Amino acid sequence: MSTAAMSAAPAGGTAPADGTTSPSGQTPTGTASPSPAHRLTGALAEARHLSFWAENAAPIGLVVLVVVFSVLSPTFLTVGNIQAMLVAAAILVILAVAQSFVITTGGIDLSISATMTIGAVGFGLAFQAGLSFWPSVLVAILASTVIGVVNGLLIALGKVTDFIATLGTLGVATGAALILTDGKPISVFSPELLRLTTGKLGFVGYPFVVAAVVGVVAWFVMFRTRYGLHVQAVGGSEEAAVANGVKASRVRIAVYVWAAALAGLASILLVARIGAAEPAINTNYLLNSIAAVVLGGVSLTGGRAKIVGPILGALLLTALTNGLTLLSVSQFYQPLAVGLVVVLAALLTRFQKR
């Protein structure tokens, strides 16, 4: 984000949403809003350019997958399978949202799956020690947040590159999880976890309800608060942001802490899903969280913030895995399919609007 753009921001520090019309229905220049016909014509004209496909890779890809798998598998669009996909996507949605804040600043968090594992182990050990459900949840989030604080301090104050810093904490967190548990899963049985796993709010399971709430809060923070504006500014041009009074170091520390806390929240869903605190990390969550952000249209170089896009990217990757499983495609081919989709999305990012 340029200096001029920051100077033009409202005094309250909030960032404009995707739409640019004023409350009176007029565009910023005072002209009348375009008619639906003109909007449709404009959308069709824009669809001729690669930038359109780059900006909308996640929703377009998700629609295509739904259509293809619906034709190939009669069970894909059944109520039960849709509910199962949403529950399965909940953890990845939360991690993708967390990763979005980090990547918007131009960074990356390679430790996010290990951070989630530390949270799960913290929950398991606290519960095993006799704490009830909610205090154990607090322990899980705090344990994960410690990793985020370390990441933020190393990167913002220690000037260690984000790749090296988070790669290092990935190793530390992985080793710590194995040492604390002696490499053995901690079985956890709790009525609250059971309700979290099986409960529903209407059509949707509780895990996805949690993920949806995280998405709504994240969208508000990113696009309706001064902090969100600063996150985007630091990713767009740190020098310009600092010149406008933004405390870039604080912003960078905060995004890693925010990401780690969300990983701690995701760890509770992970424990509920498998019924145990597993000390071995699942690197698929790391790779897919970054993939979902790329599919969602967030620039890896920073400065371009999106929340809905990465959520749709997480749903796309979940639908892809689910559809291939229903078609009895070998699990050996599933990472290949995910990798090809991500590479295609990464190529399309070259044509995103600047």
UniProtKB/TrEMBL annotation:
It is a multi-pass membrane protein. Residues 1-37 are annotated as: Disordered. The chain crosses the membrane at residues 57-76, 82-103, 110-127, 133-156, 163-181, 201-222, 253-276, 282-300, 307-326, 332-351. It comes from the Bacteria. Pfam families: BPD_transp_2. It is found in: Cell membrane. CDD domains: TM_PBP1_transp_AraH_like. Keywords: Cell membrane, Membrane, Transmembrane, Transmembrane helix. PANTHER family: ABC TRANSPORTER PERMEASE PROTEIN YPHD-RELATED-RELATED, RIBOSE IMPORT PERMEASE PROTEIN RBSC. This is ABC transporter permease.
